[in-house]
């Protein structure tokens, strides 16, 4: 009964390399990383379990630590109004909207959140997706096609790269924060493509530096292209009232074609948004696959972000405090001669230590001293620029920063 039927071809022999998961390149790479960690006596710095909400302080292994590893920039994750909004939405609408929004998942809270985002940007409309990553993948993947070109900063987030791959467009990167390098590409290639999309971020998460937005706007206008700005880290952080890089640089909302942001950082939730003109937002609402074919945002996720946005608007002093505390750290770190790269001192400040082993060891020793800061290792950054990356919250105190600087001094 085991013999093939007469006339059937024998199945081809296939190497185990193509069937066993433990022989796949990703797993092999993971094993290599683990064994070099063991050789250097460094514990895995990733997936540290936090037993609390993760703000200026957190609890790891039952111990309270000063925390520099969360994006809770405005300290709103545990704000009573934010929590209450989530509970009320959960009680009113249940735990899931159970369908995509076009089908039967639309709830009043979706429109309320989108109107508040659009109002904040003074734009015509906004749309929220269930994940920030999916927002970029779906928007870029849908809007661009094989006759189009995507030009992006070399440090752009993975979600833009995946969206670009999905779109089938040609993709080229330009030197980080360098409008001249972008212009060289536009000059050379603009004429050969239909749509051209330029993608930059408002604040870069590895370095805490920001682009000269007005120069990118001038280029997109000159070369008839679309400009998309990912405000994952700049919304709630840049500008006097936290309305992002547009506010900081005095660029009008309408001068950027596609504003993108996440709800997961300053807005204390989960999900992403696109805001811009109505034609853009309506198109995405009806056609972007990650919106159309995916469940609507749960009400208890939308409501806390709306509450967070309202608090941000009502209490701009949170943004002022975030700026103050980030600069307080950055200035003192520079005075000690540490390399903080090009950080503008707003919410994200790296301390570049020069090797992955040194960064991982420093992170482990700081944790022993009650300070949680994530190391950024090769290949996330070049080996020479491996770093400790500090994320600040408006809830950090000067005393916490002083303690951290002293510990860092000992460790480095
Ligand atoms: N864009 C940027 C620049 C990001 O840093 C991130 C995630 N950190 C995302 C998009 C994806 O957002 P989310 O984590 O909310 O899915």
From TrEMBL:
The record, for InterPro entries, names: Aminotrans_II_pyridoxalP_BS, Aminotransferase_I/II_large, AON_synthase_class-II, PyrdxlP-dep_Trfase, PyrdxlP-dep_Trfase_major, PyrdxlP-dep_Trfase_small
All copies of domain Aminotransferase class I/classII large, residue ranges: 64-408
Which E.C. number(s) belong to this protein? 2.3.1.47
Presence of the UniProt keyword Transferase in the record: yes
Cofactor(s), by name: pyridoxal 5'-phosphate
Give the record's pathway.
Cofactor biosynthesis; biotin biosynthesis
Membrane-crossing residue ranges in chain numbering: none
Provide this UniProt record's keywords sorted from A to Z: Aminotransferase, Biotin biosynthesis, Pyridoxal phosphate, Transferase
Q: Which reaction does it catalyse?
A: 6-carboxyhexanoyl-[ACP] + L-alanine + H(+) = (8S)-8-amino-7-oxononanoate + holo-[ACP] + CO2
Please give the subunit comment from the record: Homodimer.
Please state what the protein is called.
8-amino-7-oxononanoate synthase
């Amino acid at each position: 009964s085991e013999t093939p039927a007469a006339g059937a071809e024998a199945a081809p022999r296939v190497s185990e390399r193509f069937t066993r998961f433990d022989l796949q390149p990703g797993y092999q790479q993971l094993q290599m990383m683990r064994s070099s960690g063991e050789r250097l006596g460094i514990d895995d710095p990733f997936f540290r379990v936090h037993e609390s909400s993760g703000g200026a302080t957190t609890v790891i292994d039952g111990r309270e630590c000063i925390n520099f590893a969360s994006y809770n920039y405005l300290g709103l994750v545990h704000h009573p109004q934010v929590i209450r909004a989530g509970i009320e939405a959960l009680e009113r609408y249940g735990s899931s909207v159970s369908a995509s929004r076009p089908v039967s998942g639309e709830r009043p809270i979706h429109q309320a959140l989108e109107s508040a985002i659009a109002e904040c940007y003074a734009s015509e409309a906004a749309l929220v997706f269930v994940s920030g990553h999916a927002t970029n993948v779906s928007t870029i993947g849908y809007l661009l096609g094989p006759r189009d070109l995507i030009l992006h900063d070399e440090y752009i987030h993975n979600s833009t790269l995946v969206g670009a791959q999905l779109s089938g467009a040609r993709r080229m990167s330009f030197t980080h924060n360098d409008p001249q390098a972008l212009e060289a590409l536009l000059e050379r290639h603009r004429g050969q493509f239909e749509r051209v999309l330029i993608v930059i971020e408002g604040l870069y998460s590895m370095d805490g530096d920001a682009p000269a937005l007005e120069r990118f706007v001038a280029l997109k206008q000159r070369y008839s292209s679309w400009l998309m700005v990912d405000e994952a880290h700049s919304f709630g952080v840049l500008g006097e009232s936290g309305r992002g890089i547009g506010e900081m640089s005095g660029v009008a909302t309408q001068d950027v074609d596609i504003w993108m942001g996440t709800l997961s950082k300053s807005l204390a939730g989960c999900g992403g948004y696109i805001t811009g003109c109505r034609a853009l937002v309506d198109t995405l609402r009806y056609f972007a696959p990650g919106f159309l074919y995916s469940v609507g945002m749960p009400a208890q996720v939308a409501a806390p972000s709306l509450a967070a946005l309202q608090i941000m608007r009502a209490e701009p002093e949170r943004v002022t405090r975030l700026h103050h505390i980030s600069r307080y750290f950055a200035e003192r770190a520079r005075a000690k001669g540490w390399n903080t790269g090009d950080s503008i001192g707003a919410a994200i400040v790296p301390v570049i230590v020069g090797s992955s082993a040194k960064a991982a060891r420093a992170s482990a020793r700081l944790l022993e001293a009650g300070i949680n800061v994530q190391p950024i290792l090769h290949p996330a950054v070049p080996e020479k620029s491996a770093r400790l990356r500090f994320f600040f919250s408006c809830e950090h105190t000067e005393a916490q920063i002083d303690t951290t600087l002293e510990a860092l001094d000992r460790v480095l």
